[in-house]
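Quick illustration, no need to memorize.
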Amino acid sequence: MNFNDLKSKALSKTQMRAIKGGFGTCGYKSPSGTVECNVSKIQAQFMATSKGNWCCDSCASSSYCG
């Protein structure tokens, strides 16, 4: 495979952010039931705490951000 083949299959910045949990691509449901979608991965993890739920690449199939 040459460089041009690889380049044509490379992900865009937007696609990479979605995979890695960039700003606005994640969500959470806190233990108290608060739901927030379209936040950063760090925000989602922090707000979900140990008994909540958070998602990034699986948000579309989650019950709270789907």
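The two ends are 37 Å apart (CA to CA).
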